[in-house]
Write a structure and sequence with these properties.
Length: 111
């Protein structure tokens, strides 16, 4: 009997946040995250996929906006403070991380 997957906005948001958390804490790699999404997508009934995709894109868009706001807040907070080489390196890493999801969110989902 196939497993029933919820496609509510809240369920999809929770799935995305759990996946992000596993990447942040180092439990999964990007490739493992992609595989998790592929397996999760296959469990969604084909008739439910359009709404699941809609909610997924909304969550990704809001998440990207939040990351951009965090980046802008960090930049604003560190502009007036003298930066050491460590904080400069951290800021550059943050910029790279934040810019990567923006590109992926604008692309059509490969799910």
């Amino acid at each position: 009997m196939p497993q029933e997957i919820s496609v509510s906005y809240q369920a999809i948001k929770s799935k995305v946040y759990r996946l992000v958390d596993t990447l942040v804490v180092g439990e999964k790699t990007e490739a493992e995250i992609q595989e998790s999404v592929r397996r999760w997508w296959e469990l969604i009934h084909p008739a439910d996929r359009p709404i699941a995709q809609k909610y997924l894109l909304e969550v990704l868009e809001h998440s990207t906006s939040a990351l951009c706001a965090i980046e802008q807040g960090l930049v604003a907070a560190t502009e007036s403070a003298p930066q050491s080489s460590d904080s400069t390196r951290t800021l550059k890493l943050m910029e790279r991380i934040v810019k990567q999801p923006v590109k992926q969110a604008n692309a059509s989902p490969a799910i």
